[in-house]
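User: My collaborator sent over this chain with a note saying "see what the structure looks like." That's all I know about it. Can you take a look?
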Amino acid sequence: MRGPLAGYLTYLRVERGLAANTVEAYERDLRKFCRFAQTKGWEPRQAGPVEIQEFLVWLGREQLESRTVARQIVSLRSFFGFLRRERKIAANPTENLESPRIWKVLPKYLTLEEVDGLLAEPKGDTPVEARDRAMLEMLYATGLRVSELAGLRVADVNLEAGTVRTLGKGNKLRMVPVGRAAVRALEQYCGVWRGRLLCGRESPYLFLSRRGTRLTRQSVWLRLARYGRRAGIRKRIAPHMLRHSFATHLLARGADLRSLQLLLGHADISTTQVYTHVAAARLKEIYRQHHPRA
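Assistant: Without extra context I'll predict from the sequence alone. Here is the result:
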């Protein structure tokens, strides 16, 4: 199975140009399938509809969310479709599979007051606090994914024009405006503090660790969670929550869905449409709070 799986992952990276995180997700799903096949004593690429169904029943017993099972089915469909096109199997055993019904989960976001409290938390005059101020302002100002933020290079940011260039999913390049508050934080960080993190070294990356190396996604998560606790926010803070807040607040102030799609880098506008549900839920909440006969 190593050969077909390796060939499939190369196809995802090279021909389809999928992001590293997406390829890793496909690989995790398929390795889980391979481990299950091994326990049952059959070869994964020789699986038929019966074996595939047996695997899905096992996933159900594991009490996984319907969204997780649906993603696993997508991975299997894509993999066996690849094997069929490469003529390594005679038929695709996943053709008639139905995905489980997925309940729509509204993205969690912060209120304006919570965002203000969070962004005000990096208060100190140190390289790390200055970096974190710029980092948090950038996340909220642009709606970047955490992987996009960690991958930013100094050359990607044009402070004079107030724009940032980022490479999103599927290696798609997009240009996103940067607000005044984020520009000021970036000017201070790049002009004064970033050089101190470099400690005489060189790095093309914008956000650096204490050792002058590229800041990891995990570090961004940890720093954000720490500032959330300091700000007294009881929600579990994650970088994607700032992306959701960015989108929700723009939509609430009249941004159109097509523009929001471009800013977020969504390939399909149906992905962006979830924020209309968030805005509707927020309107209902305001109505209940303020209407005298609600």
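A starting point for your reply to your collaborator: The chain has a mean pLDDT of 87.
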